[in-house]
Design goal:
Blueprint (H helix, E strand, L loop, with lengths): L3 H17 L1 H34 L19 H19 L7 H7 L6 H16 L7 H18 L4 H20 L2 H13 L4 H20 L17 H33 L8 H15 L8 H9 L4 H20 L7 H20 L9 H16 L3 H12 L2 H21 L4 H8 L11 H5 L2 H4 L6 E3 L4 H7 L7 E5 L5 E6 H4 L27 H11 L3 E5 L5 E6 H19 L4
Parallel strand pairs: 1-2
Antiparallel strand pairs: 2-3, 4-5
Helix pairs in contact: 1-2, 2-5, 2-6, 2-7, 2-9, 3-5, 3-11, 5-6, 6-7, 7-8, 7-9, 8-9, 8-16, 10-13, 10-15, 10-17, 11-13, 12-14, 13-14, 14-15, 15-16, 15-17, 16-17, 23-24
Length: 582
């Protein structure tokens, strides 16, 4: 017989240890890393299996094919039909859009429902498997972060520990996908956690290393790009690659805006939303007929174009078609990310840059392969974010420290220009289109949870707005309270009367209480967060504000002093958790 009580006690004891022991948290991160590595392997296998089913059993990399038989491209609208079916099923079983890892860590304290991760993963696998122009990294990161979130939620980890585990899971997935643990770790810090924190370093590193070793143990090869020869990096190279970084930033911003423009145009088409992915798949067919390099994520095409000499005109054509294909894919409702698509676009931009320079008489020359790698990092950081993430990807892919240093200079230029002119990565831009205001994964959820409804004081002294000042004085003698909140006959808020004002010598005792009330037209709603409340106090110059419901009925009273004290307390608590202090 299994002693269930004993098992429950063991579980509770281990859960308490996880909440109090850094070593236990690291051990959990290693376990998460192993699971995430296996999930990444399974997802990649499913997507590639679909590609072989649709495009032929001998297909290793779809984008590396010379051509595709036209009838096989019918997989694109068929995949759109599958995406539409999954979306319809999800719409009938849920009310809100799925939560991704960035949104979860920024707004929800790391909580991701398991069905959200399964939904995003399924749609991304189908999108990539049918040949749509997106990568699998979104599915990898979603399943990695989602698995970590489920495990951490079951073990009731503290808020900051759960956010760390979500970052570790997502970073481990990216590290496993590229066989690059440093890339995965910086992805976790820069994109999913939103900060470099001492408390998160060990768990994130442990998860990324565990996931990478799991993939290698299963036979997966690390993501490597062979350089024909090392080239000395001189001062002029930094200047040229900085220019390449700026150019990639401008292209990336245009790409993100193009996705939104096409999505808006697709919504205006006289067809039901269900059919939009099918139409999008049909629009991708002529692009696939021109060149398969514009389809799927672009892994095969990237390696092919780096290993085989190609002309400037060909590169420009593929670049423009890939931009168009990725915009159509996401704009018409396919699911996926632009992580690897941006890497491929960046490699094309770098080669175009190098060949264009070589055609200019007297212009400095750069190696096309080096330029492709720097362009990869610059374009990806402009779309995805994470300067160190992309620099580490170049380093771990090439093992060339000099090239990684110049890539870092380019990505810093690119990311600075994107922040100044646009202000969003692709994931936060999509959230912005849904009326969210977050610009990174930094934890702002506690701010939204600290609402006026939670901070307000109930049971405040009240009186009718129609009573006289003399009656108000009788009911609330001087010293009994600092203020009285007035309501009308139906209980709706009608203003605040400071008792000092009611007892002032210049106040007429026969006057109506509502006539001397202040803040009659301003009040807070219970769902307004602490930031909005502090802004309201500042804007209206008030010491106290009433909290009212949709009908204007009084719920409670909130003072500026209390709001600022609660904000300071929560901010200090968040800072302590950020640095791993109890």
């Amino acid at each position: 017989m299994i002693n269930t009580n004993r098992i429950a006690l063991i579980f509770l004891r281990e859960r308490r240890r996880l909440r109090s022991s850094e070593v236990a948290l690291i051990a959990l991160a290693v376990l998460v890393g192993v699971v995430v590595g296996l999930l990444t392997l399974i997802q990649g296998g499913l997507a590639h299996g679909l590609q072989r089913l649709f495009y032929g059993s001998d297909v290793a990399q779809l984008s590396a094919l010379d051509s595709i038989e036209p009838f096989r491209l019918l997989a694109l609208p068929f995949g759109g039909l599958l995406i539409a079916g999954i979306a319809l099923w999800a719409k009938r079983h849920r009310q809100s859009a799925p939560i991704d890892v960035v949104e979860a860590n920024a707004l929800h304290g790391g909580h991701i429902p398991a069905r959200d991760s399964l939904l995003v993963s399924a749609q991304t696998i189908v999108s990539n498997g049918c040949g749509a122009s997106v990568g699998l990294e979104a599915a990898y990161a979603q399943m990695g972060g989602g698995a970590a979130s489920v495990a951490g939620s079951r073990l009731k980890l503290r808020r900051n520990d759960l956010r760390t585990m979500v970052g570790a899971g997502a970073g481990a997935a990216v590290g496993a996908a590229f066989g690059a643990p440093l890339t995965g770790a910086f992805y976790a810090f820069e994109i999913v956690i939103g900060a470099y924190t001492p408390a998160a370093i060990a768990p994130v590193a442990a998860a990324c290393i565990a996931a990478t070793l799991t993939i290698r143990a299963a036979g997966g090869a690390p993501y490597q790009i062979s350089l024909p020869s090392a080239h000395a990096i001189v001062t002029v190279d930094y200047l040229l690659y900085a220019a390449l970084g700026f150019a990639c930033a401008l292209v990336a911003v245009s790409l993100m805006q193009a996705v939104t423009s096409i999505e808006n145009a697709a919504r205006r088409l006289p067809i039901a939303d269900f059919w939009r992915p099918v139409v999008g798949g049909a629009l991708l067919i002529p692009i696939g007929l021109v060149t398969p390099q514009a389809l799927s994520a672009g892994h095969g095409a990237l390696h092919l174009d780096l290993s085989v000499p190609v002309g400037l005109g060909f590169l420009v054509g593929v670049f423009l078609l890939k931009l168009l294909a990725s915009s159509i894919t996401l704009g018409f409702g396919f699911r996926g990310g632009l992580f690897f698509a941006s890497l491929f676009l960046g490699s094309l931009a770098g080669q175009i840059f190098a060949l264009a320079l070589s055609a200019l008489p007297g212009a400095p020359q750069v190696d096309p392969v080096d330029a492709a790698l720097v362009g990869m990092a610059a374009m990806a950081v402009s779309v995805v974010g994470g300067p160190m993430t992309m620099s580490m990807l170049v380093l771990e892919s090439t093992h060339d420290f000099a090239l990684a240093s110049v890539a870092l200079a380019a990505v810093l230029c690119a990311s600075t220009l994107v922040r100044e002119t646009f202000g969003f990565s692709f994931s936060t831009w999509r959230l912005h289109m849904r009326s969210e205001t977050i610009r990174s994964a930094r934890d702002v959820g506690w701010v939204r949870n600290l609402t006026a409804g939670r901070m307000m004081r109930r049971g405040v002294p009240t009186a009718g707005a129609d009573i006289s000042v003399a009656e108000l004085r009788r009911r609330h003698p001087l010293g009994s309270t600092g203020r009285v909140v007035l309501t009308d006959d139906s209980g709706r808020y009608a203003g605040i009367v400071p008792t000092a004002l009611a007892f002032a010598a210049t106040t007429d005792p026969d006057a109506r209480a509502g006539d001397i009330a202040i803040q009659r037209e301003v009040a807070l709603r219970p769902e307004q967060d602490v930031a909005a409340a502090m802004q309201a106090f500042e804007e209206w110059g008030a010491d106290d504000l009433a909290v009212v419901d949709e009908e204007g009925r009084l719920l409670g009273l909130l003072s500026e002093r209390h709001v600022r004290r609660r904000y300071a307390e929560e901010l200090e608590k968040a800072q302590r958790e950020l640095f791993g202090e109890s």
